[in-house]
């Protein structure tokens, strides 16, 4: 049995990569909270306004939902770019960066945020 020695440089690169993944997952958690809160506020306020047969002109549910969803989606895209650029700086390939489970989860949440954002804008009523 041979002893495989990992250099200090390799360990520091692994720690940096894991730290970047934790940061990306923090972006995902925060973004998912904002996106779900925005969509929920939109649906709740819209149903209240519909049941009471009134219009809310000052703070429309649509604008409030879009604001929260944008506050979740845009920073997630920035966090994904930050993660991707760090992984590229560490010398990893595009395949290693994109097919990482953390990046894949972030991509799914980003697609969810964009889809729900456009659902509200164009009133597709997907959900």
Task: Describe the 3D structure.
- The protein is mainly alpha-helical and 127 residues long.
- Helices cover 79% and strands 0% of the residues.
- The chain has four helices and no strands.
- It has helices spanning 8-51, 61-89, 94-98, 101-122.
- The chain is elongated and about 75 Å long.
Figure out the total of helices. 4
Report the average pLDDT across residues. Answer: 87
Low-confidence stretches: none
Q: Report the span from N to C terminus.
A: 58 Å
Percentage of residues assigned to helices: over 70%
Largest sheet: none
What gross morphology would you assign?
Answer: elongated
Q: Estimate what percentage of residues fall within beta strands.
A: under 5%
Helix-strand topology string: HHHH
Total strands = 0
Rg value: 20 Å
Could you say which structural class the secondary elements and strand pairing correspond to?
mainly alpha
Brief write-up:
With 127 residues, this protein is mostly helical.
Key terms for this structure?
127 residues; mainly alpha; 0% strand
List the helices and strands and how they pair.
Layout: H1 8-51, H2 61-89, H3 94-98, H4 101-122
Helix pairs in contact: 1-2, 1-4, 2-4
């Amino acid at each position: 049995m041979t002893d495989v020695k990992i250099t200090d440089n390799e360990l520091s690169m692994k720690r940096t990569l894991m730290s970047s993944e934790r940061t990306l997952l923090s972006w995902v958690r925060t973004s998912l909270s904002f996106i779900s809160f925005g969509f929920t506020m939109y649906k709740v306020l819209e149903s209240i306004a519909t049941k009471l047969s009134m219009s809310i002109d000052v703070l429309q549910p649509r604008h409030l939902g879009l604001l929260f969803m944008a506050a979740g989606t845009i920073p997630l895209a920035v966090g994904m770019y930050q993660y991707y650029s760090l992984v590229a700086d560490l010398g990893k390939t595009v395949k290693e960066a994109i097919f990482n489970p953390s990046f894949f989860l972030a991509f799914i949440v980003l697609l969810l945020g964009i889809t729900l954002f456009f659902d509200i804008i164009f009133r597709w009523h997907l959900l």
